[in-house]
Amino acid sequence: MHSLLEIFRNEVLICALTSWFIAQVLKIPTYRIVEKEWNWRRFFGSGGMPSSHTSFVVALTLMTGFDAGFQSVAFAIAFTLAAIVM
After folding, report:
1. What is the distance, to the nearest Å, from the Cα of residue 57 to the centroid of all Cα atoms in its chain?
2. pTM, to two decimals
3. In terms of C-beta distances under 8 Å and separation of at least 24 residues, what long-range contacts does 42-46 make, across chains too?
4. How big is the chain by its Cα radius of gyration, in Å?
């Protein structure tokens, strides 16, 4: 039986979550540049640039391709998901 903690060793998932986090963090200075004011709530909000949804699925798709191969079924599923999200 596998431990649930093995999820933290999944490099594909870690990369996708890191990409999401970076996109969310970058929303704060991007908002500051455009609107000339700090809004720390942008970290928790959806929408805006950069798109954390797109960042997440693109990282997921690329890492799946690198890990399982770009000819794999897993990559095709991830690519389809990315196309729908974007």
Report:
1. 5
2. 0.84
3. none
4. 15
Distance of alpha carbon 27 from alpha carbon 47, whole angstroms: 9
Q: Which single residue is written with the structure tokens 């959806």? A: 46
Sequence length of the chain is 86
Q: Can you give the chain as a three-state secondary structure string?
A: CCCHHHHHHCHHHHHHHHHHHHHHHHHHHHHHHHHCCCCHHHHCCCCCCCCHHHHHHHHHHHHHHHHHCCCCHHHHHHHHHHHHHC
Q: Chunk the chain into consecutive blocks of 10 residues (it has 86) and report each block's average pLDDT, rounded to whole numbers.
A: 82 95 92 86 80 94 97 97 94
> What is the Cα 7 distance to its own chain's centre?
16
Residue 17 to residue 41: CA distance in whole angstroms: 19
Q: Which two tokens stand for residue 42?
A: 């942008």
